[in-house]
Write a structure and sequence with these properties.
The protein is elongated and about 70 Å long. Helix 8 crosses helix 11. The protein is α/β, with parallel strands linked by helices. The strands form 2 sheets. The protein has a 7-stranded parallel β-sheet with strand order 3-2-1-4-5-6-7, sandwiched between helices. It folds into 2 domains: about 180 residues, Rossmann fold, CATH 3.40.50; about 190 residues, 3-Layer(aba) Sandwich (Rossmann fold).
Amino acid sequence: MRIYLVAGELSGDILGAGLMQALKRRHPGAEFRGIGGPRMLAEGLQSLYPLETLSVMGLVEVLKHLPRLVKVRRHLRRDALAWQPDVMIGIDAPDFNLGLERQLRVTGMPTVHYVSPSVWAWRQGRVKTIAESVDAMLTFLPFEAAFYARHAVPVAFVGHPLADELPLVNDRQAARTALGLSATAPLLAVLPGSRGNEIRFLGPTFLDSAVWLRERLPGLQVVIPAASPARRQELEVLLATHPAREFVHLRDGESRQAMTAADAVLLASGTAALEAMLCHRPMVVAYKMAAATHWLAKRMVKTEWISLPNLIAQETLVPELVQQDASCEAIGEALLTWLGDDAHRQATEARFADLHATLQRGASERAAEAIDRLVAHGRLPEEPIA
């Protein structure tokens, strides 16, 4: 079996390596070609370009590099047609990969896209382009699969690799011991984001909320896992003159351990909310951005919720506070509903454990199974893959 794989960033390299392992278990003699990083290379990929080739962020940067990216896509198209793989799989990087998938699909080559773009949230008109580009969309989340099914795009829900990675049963006390924190005092984990802008917009409010909360819960512990050395430096500057410096524990990384140790989590919207859900911890999701960005986002985003736990459940399980609603008092009050009500908190933890189980499906194996069925039958089966 010959498989053409194109990944565009580190997360895609991790996903691609897991998929290659699953495909090799099914097809020990499989050959792989395309673009990937060190993990995919270790699994046997012949990569024509470095992984970083497609890692271009921001409109200005994309425009600057557009001629080079067009040249790379043309080369990959010619190379794939010459090599004649059984299937071409684009891993994330939708702006690049969907165009390549469309160009190859019109020649009769089966194409798969692994990791749905957020077409269900904004620019929903892209679904028409996706339908023209892929024979199968492999999604991590059930509501994504439902969206594609409504638009008659062949789809398989394969589960989320992060749900496979995190255990269905975790140990709060062991995590606290590892972090050197009290086993009995209430604990709040605060994750203000991995980007500089998020620290700038959210950091002061999150620290104010921690102070507000500690005034009402005098024994409260607060741990902030810094996402990177740069974010730690920015947080240290904020804490230097802030009352929260007296009780905040600032750590390097260790976000999963911090969330597992916590009774509740305060975080920016994003993947961290999914991770907190998979650690089975109640949370408050808050987000602030530039006024112009918020004005535009309100008009473009088509979903009722912004956080993945609510989107997965298709109901409001966790508070979402955005822009002016994300005041320190509103955040503090929302956190008190978790920290002050053990029954409510435990019921939510149990619900998150159930949602975790629905996502823990062996994503790489299920993706490989869907690809096998597509190659064997020319289309995905009508019935869901069990």
